[in-house]
Protein backbone atom coordinates (compact mmCIF):
# COMPACT_ATOMS: atom_id res chain seq x y z
CA UNK A 1 0.00 0.00 0.00
CA UNK A 2 1.51 3.36 -1.00
CA UNK A 3 1.40 6.69 0.76
CA UNK A 4 -1.50 7.96 -1.33
CA UNK A 5 -3.79 5.14 -0.09
CA UNK A 6 -2.83 5.77 3.54
CA UNK A 7 -3.22 9.53 3.45
CA UNK A 8 -5.98 10.07 0.90
CA UNK A 9 -8.46 11.17 3.58
CA UNK A 10 -6.46 14.04 4.96
CA UNK A 11 -3.48 14.74 2.74
CA UNK A 12 -4.28 13.52 -0.80
CA UNK A 13 -0.64 12.62 -1.34
CA UNK A 14 0.84 11.22 -4.53
CA UNK A 15 4.34 9.72 -4.19
CA UNK A 16 5.65 8.19 -7.38
CA UNK A 17 9.33 7.88 -6.50
CA UNK A 18 10.78 7.85 -2.97
CA UNK A 19 13.43 10.47 -2.28
CA UNK A 20 16.13 9.57 0.25
CA UNK A 21 16.79 12.33 2.77
CA UNK A 22 19.48 12.12 5.46
CA UNK A 23 18.03 11.55 8.90
CA UNK A 24 19.39 14.82 10.27
CA UNK A 25 18.44 17.03 7.32
CA UNK A 26 16.36 20.15 7.86
CA UNK A 27 15.79 20.72 4.17
CA UNK A 28 12.09 20.31 3.59
CA UNK A 29 11.98 19.89 -0.17
CA UNK A 30 14.71 18.00 -2.00
CA UNK A 31 15.84 19.06 -5.44
CA UNK A 32 16.21 16.24 -7.97
CA UNK A 33 19.70 15.84 -9.36
CA UNK A 34 20.69 14.92 -12.86
CA UNK A 35 23.41 12.57 -11.70
CA UNK A 36 24.76 10.95 -8.56
CA UNK A 37 28.31 10.45 -7.31
CA UNK A 38 29.27 7.12 -5.82
CA UNK A 39 32.48 5.75 -4.32
CA UNK A 40 33.88 2.41 -5.34
CA UNK A 41 37.12 0.52 -4.94
CA UNK A 42 38.88 -1.44 -7.67
CA UNK A 43 40.57 -4.79 -7.21
CA UNK A 44 43.22 -6.20 -9.53
CA UNK A 45 43.23 -10.00 -9.10
CA UNK A 46 46.32 -11.90 -8.00
CA UNK A 47 46.27 -13.79 -11.30
CA UNK A 48 47.20 -10.61 -13.18
CA UNK A 49 50.80 -10.25 -14.36
CA UNK A 50 52.72 -7.02 -13.83
CA UNK A 51 54.73 -6.60 -17.04
CA UNK A 52 57.59 -4.09 -16.93
CA UNK A 53 60.16 -2.86 -19.45
CA UNK A 54 63.70 -1.81 -18.56
CA UNK A 55 64.57 1.59 -20.05
CA UNK A 56 68.31 0.81 -19.94
CA UNK A 57 70.76 -2.03 -19.42
CA UNK A 58 71.32 -3.21 -15.84
CA UNK A 59 74.23 -5.30 -14.55
CA UNK A 60 73.94 -6.77 -11.06
CA UNK A 61 76.94 -8.13 -9.15
CA UNK A 62 75.38 -11.01 -7.25
CA UNK A 63 78.29 -11.18 -4.82
CA UNK A 64 77.69 -7.63 -3.55
CA UNK A 65 74.30 -8.68 -2.08
CA UNK A 66 73.03 -5.12 -2.31
CA UNK A 67 69.56 -4.22 -3.57
CA UNK A 68 69.41 -1.81 -6.48
CA UNK A 69 66.21 0.32 -6.65
CA UNK A 70 64.90 1.84 -9.88
CA UNK A 71 61.62 3.11 -11.37
CA UNK A 72 60.49 1.46 -14.60
CA UNK A 73 57.40 1.84 -16.82
CA UNK A 74 54.52 -0.63 -16.95
CA UNK A 75 54.73 -2.32 -20.36
CA UNK A 76 51.06 -3.40 -20.51
CA UNK A 77 47.96 -2.06 -18.70
CA UNK A 78 46.46 -3.78 -15.66
CA UNK A 79 42.83 -4.97 -15.73
CA UNK A 80 40.25 -5.39 -12.98
CA UNK A 81 38.04 -8.44 -12.43
CA UNK A 82 35.63 -7.28 -15.15
CA UNK A 83 38.39 -6.83 -17.72
CA UNK A 84 38.36 -3.02 -17.53
CA UNK A 85 41.67 -1.18 -17.92
CA UNK A 86 42.31 0.47 -14.55
CA UNK A 87 46.06 1.13 -14.70
CA UNK A 88 47.39 2.28 -18.10
CA UNK A 89 50.64 1.29 -19.74
CA UNK A 90 53.72 3.43 -18.92
CA UNK A 91 52.55 3.86 -15.33
CA UNK A 92 55.63 4.19 -13.04
CA UNK A 93 56.48 1.05 -11.08
CA UNK A 94 59.02 1.07 -8.24
CA UNK A 95 61.19 -2.08 -8.34
CA UNK A 96 64.34 -3.46 -6.74
CA UNK A 97 66.93 -5.80 -8.19
CA UNK A 98 67.54 -8.24 -5.35
CA UNK A 99 70.63 -10.51 -5.58
CA UNK A 100 70.06 -14.12 -4.60
CA UNK A 101 72.08 -17.28 -4.77
CA UNK A 102 73.00 -17.86 -8.40
CA UNK A 103 71.18 -14.83 -9.74
CA UNK A 104 68.74 -12.03 -8.91
CA UNK A 105 65.03 -11.25 -8.73
CA UNK A 106 63.11 -8.16 -9.78
CA UNK A 107 60.78 -7.23 -6.90
CA UNK A 108 58.08 -4.54 -7.23
CA UNK A 109 56.87 -2.76 -4.09
CA UNK A 110 54.67 0.10 -5.35
CA UNK A 111 52.91 1.61 -8.34
CA UNK A 112 51.65 5.15 -8.91
CA UNK A 113 47.91 5.30 -9.69
CA UNK A 114 46.13 8.65 -10.17
CA UNK A 115 48.91 10.38 -8.30
CA UNK A 116 48.79 8.02 -5.33
CA UNK A 117 51.45 5.47 -4.34
CA UNK A 118 49.78 2.06 -4.10
CA UNK A 119 51.72 -0.77 -2.38
CA UNK A 120 51.99 -4.01 -4.35
CA UNK A 121 53.73 -7.34 -3.92
CA UNK A 122 55.10 -8.80 -7.15
CA UNK A 123 58.32 -10.50 -8.23
CA UNK A 124 59.98 -12.49 -10.99
CA UNK A 125 61.51 -15.92 -10.73
CA UNK A 126 65.27 -15.96 -10.09
CA UNK A 127 67.11 -14.65 -13.15
CA UNK A 128 70.35 -16.67 -13.44
CA UNK A 129 73.69 -14.86 -13.61
CA UNK A 130 76.84 -15.45 -15.67
CA UNK A 131 80.34 -15.98 -14.31
CA UNK A 132 82.78 -13.51 -15.85
CA UNK A 133 86.41 -12.52 -15.28
CA UNK A 134 86.79 -9.12 -13.74
CA UNK A 135 89.99 -7.14 -13.06
CA UNK A 136 89.54 -5.99 -9.49
CA UNK A 137 92.04 -3.13 -9.78
CA UNK A 138 92.99 -1.33 -6.59
CA UNK A 139 91.39 -3.92 -4.32
CA UNK A 140 93.48 -6.73 -5.79
CA UNK A 141 96.55 -4.48 -5.80
CA UNK A 142 96.25 -3.89 -2.09
CA UNK A 143 95.98 -7.61 -1.46
CA UNK A 144 99.18 -8.44 -3.40
CA UNK A 145 101.25 -5.38 -2.48
CA UNK A 146 101.84 -6.37 1.13
CA UNK A 147 102.57 -9.98 0.25
CA UNK A 148 105.11 -9.11 -2.45
CA UNK A 149 106.72 -6.42 -0.30
CA UNK A 150 107.37 -8.85 2.53
CA UNK A 151 108.71 -11.44 0.12
CA UNK A 152 111.21 -9.13 -1.63
CA UNK A 153 112.24 -7.50 1.61
CA UNK A 154 113.03 -10.87 3.17
CA UNK A 155 115.04 -12.04 0.15
CA UNK A 156 117.19 -8.92 -0.17
CA UNK A 157 117.65 -8.59 3.57
CA UNK A 158 118.85 -12.16 3.90
CA UNK A 159 121.45 -11.85 1.12
CA UNK A 160 122.88 -8.48 2.14
CA UNK A 161 125.86 -7.83 4.40
CA UNK A 162 125.12 -7.47 8.06
CA UNK A 163 125.64 -3.74 8.00
CA UNK A 164 123.13 -3.30 5.22
CA UNK A 165 120.43 -5.84 6.15
CA UNK A 166 117.94 -3.26 7.44
CA UNK A 167 118.50 -0.99 4.47
CA UNK A 168 118.11 -3.81 1.94
CA UNK A 169 115.01 -5.10 3.72
CA UNK A 170 113.39 -1.70 3.32
CA UNK A 171 114.39 -1.45 -0.31
CA UNK A 172 113.13 -4.94 -0.99
CA UNK A 173 109.82 -4.12 0.64
CA UNK A 174 109.37 -1.07 -1.58
CA UNK A 175 110.27 -3.00 -4.72
CA UNK A 176 108.01 -5.88 -3.80
CA UNK A 177 105.13 -3.56 -2.95
CA UNK A 178 105.40 -1.87 -6.33
CA UNK A 179 105.49 -5.20 -8.12
CA UNK A 180 102.53 -6.35 -6.05
CA UNK A 181 100.50 -3.33 -7.05
CA UNK A 182 101.20 -3.89 -10.72
CA UNK A 183 100.44 -7.56 -10.36
CA UNK A 184 97.20 -6.92 -8.49
CA UNK A 185 96.02 -4.36 -11.01
CA UNK A 186 96.21 -7.01 -13.72
CA UNK A 187 95.00 -10.01 -11.76
CA UNK A 188 91.62 -11.26 -12.98
CA UNK A 189 88.88 -12.19 -10.53
CA UNK A 190 85.83 -14.33 -11.24
CA UNK A 191 82.48 -12.77 -10.29
CA UNK A 192 78.85 -13.69 -11.01
CA UNK A 193 76.83 -10.99 -12.78
CA UNK A 194 73.19 -10.83 -13.89
CA UNK A 195 73.08 -8.86 -17.12
CA UNK A 196 69.70 -7.35 -18.11
CA UNK A 197 69.72 -5.68 -21.53
CA UNK A 198 67.93 -2.42 -22.35
CA UNK A 199 64.28 -2.69 -23.49
CA UNK A 200 64.00 -6.20 -22.05
CA UNK A 201 60.54 -7.14 -20.73
CA UNK A 202 59.86 -9.10 -17.53
CA UNK A 203 56.67 -10.51 -16.01
CA UNK A 204 56.25 -10.13 -12.26
CA UNK A 205 53.81 -12.47 -10.51
CA UNK A 206 51.54 -10.85 -7.94
CA UNK A 207 51.79 -12.28 -4.44
CA UNK A 208 48.49 -10.64 -3.41
CA UNK A 209 45.66 -8.74 -5.18
CA UNK A 210 46.09 -4.99 -5.70
CA UNK A 211 43.47 -2.78 -4.06
CA UNK A 212 43.37 0.57 -5.83
CA UNK A 213 42.27 3.79 -4.07
CA UNK A 214 38.59 4.70 -3.82
CA UNK A 215 37.48 6.55 -6.93
CA UNK A 216 34.46 8.70 -7.65
CA UNK A 217 32.23 7.67 -10.52
CA UNK A 218 29.19 9.35 -12.02
CA UNK A 219 26.07 7.24 -12.38
CA UNK A 220 23.29 7.57 -14.93
CA UNK A 221 20.88 10.51 -14.50
CA UNK A 222 18.40 9.89 -11.71
CA UNK A 223 14.71 10.09 -12.50
CA UNK A 224 13.05 13.26 -11.27
CA UNK A 225 11.11 12.70 -8.06
CA UNK A 226 7.63 14.19 -7.80
CA UNK A 227 6.86 15.99 -4.57
CA UNK A 228 3.87 15.04 -2.40
CA UNK A 229 0.77 17.17 -2.97
CA UNK A 230 -1.51 18.24 -0.10
CA UNK A 231 -4.98 19.79 0.26
CA UNK A 232 -5.57 19.88 4.03
CA UNK A 233 -6.80 23.24 5.36
CA UNK A 234 -7.00 22.94 9.14
CA UNK A 235 -5.24 21.43 12.14
CA UNK A 236 -7.64 18.52 12.48
CA UNK A 237 -6.96 17.27 8.95
CA UNK A 238 -3.24 17.89 9.37
CA UNK A 239 -3.07 15.94 12.64
CA UNK A 240 -5.08 13.09 11.15
CA UNK A 241 -2.66 12.91 8.23
CA UNK A 242 0.42 12.80 10.46
CA UNK A 243 -1.21 10.05 12.55
CA UNK A 244 -1.81 8.09 9.34
CA UNK A 245 1.86 8.42 8.34
CA UNK A 246 3.05 7.22 11.76
CA UNK A 247 0.62 4.31 11.70
CA UNK A 248 1.66 3.33 8.18
CA UNK A 249 5.32 3.36 9.21
CA UNK A 250 4.69 1.24 12.30
CA UNK A 251 2.69 -1.27 10.24
CA UNK A 252 5.48 -1.54 7.68
CA UNK A 253 3.40 0.01 4.89
CA UNK A 254 5.80 2.96 4.59
CA UNK A 255 9.58 2.95 4.89
CA UNK A 256 11.18 5.38 7.32
CA UNK A 257 12.62 7.32 4.39
CA UNK A 258 9.28 7.67 2.61
CA UNK A 259 7.40 8.53 5.79
CA UNK A 260 9.92 11.18 6.73
CA UNK A 261 9.76 12.66 3.25
CA UNK A 262 6.00 13.03 3.54
CA UNK A 263 6.28 14.63 7.00
CA UNK A 264 8.91 17.14 5.85
CA UNK A 265 6.93 18.07 2.73
CA UNK A 266 3.71 18.43 4.77
CA UNK A 267 5.48 20.75 7.22
CA UNK A 268 6.71 22.85 4.32
CA UNK A 269 3.19 23.09 2.92
CA UNK A 270 1.64 23.89 6.31
CA UNK A 271 4.09 26.67 7.13
CA UNK A 272 4.49 28.32 3.72
CA UNK A 273 1.18 27.78 1.90
CA UNK A 274 -1.31 28.21 4.73
CA UNK A 275 -2.20 31.24 6.86
CA UNK A 276 -1.81 31.01 9.75
CA UNK A 277 0.94 28.44 9.87
CA UNK A 278 -0.08 25.04 11.12
CA UNK A 279 1.84 22.57 13.28
CA UNK A 280 0.87 19.10 14.51
CA UNK A 281 -0.03 18.58 18.14
CA UNK A 282 2.87 18.49 20.61
CA UNK A 283 2.46 14.74 21.16
CA UNK A 284 2.63 14.04 17.43
CA UNK A 285 5.66 16.29 17.09
CA UNK A 286 7.44 14.32 19.79
CA UNK A 287 6.68 11.04 17.97
CA UNK A 288 7.97 12.49 14.70
CA UNK A 289 11.18 13.51 16.44
CA UNK A 290 11.66 10.08 17.98
CA UNK A 291 10.76 8.05 14.89
CA UNK A 292 12.14 10.21 12.09
CA UNK A 293 14.63 12.56 13.82
CA UNK A 294 12.81 15.62 12.53
CA UNK A 295 12.21 18.76 14.60
CA UNK A 296 9.54 21.30 13.70
CA UNK A 297 10.44 24.99 13.67
CA UNK A 298 8.14 25.70 16.60
CA UNK A 299 10.23 23.37 18.78
CA UNK A 300 13.65 24.59 17.64
CA UNK A 301 15.54 26.78 20.05
How would you describe what is shown here?
With 301 residues, the chain is of the alpha+beta class. The chain folds into three domains: 3-33 and 223-299, no CATH class; 41-132 and 192-217, Lipocalin, CATH 2.40.128; 137-186, no CATH class. Helix content is 31%, strand content 29%. The protein has six helices and 14 strands. The chain has helices at residues 3-7, 138-159, 165-185, 235-250, 256-272, 282-292, and strands at residues 37-44, 49-53, 58-61, 68-73, 78-79, 85-87, 92-100, 103-113, 116-123, 127-128, 130-135, 188-196, 201-206, 210-218. The strands form four sheets. Strands 2, 4, 7, 8, 9, 10 and 13 form a seven-stranded antiparallel β-sheet that branches. Strands 3-12-11 form a three-stranded antiparallel β-sheet, with no helix packed on it. The chain has a two-stranded antiparallel sheet with strand order 1-14. Strand 5 and strand 6 (85-87) form a beta hairpin. The longest helix has 22 residues, at 138-159. The protein is rod-shaped. Residues 1-39 and 216-222 have low confidence and may be disordered.
In CATH, the homologous superfamily of the largest domain goes by the name Type IV secretion system, VirB10/TraB/TrbI
Please, how many domains? 3
CATH topology of the largest domain: Lipocalin
Number of strands: 14
Shape: rod-shaped
* Rg on CA atoms, Å: 41 Å
CATH class of the largest domain: Mainly Beta
Average pLDDT metric: 74
Low-confidence stretches: 1-39, 216-222
Helix and strand element order: HEEEEEEEEEEEHHEEEHHH
**Beta-strand percentage?**
25-35%
Helix count?
A: 6
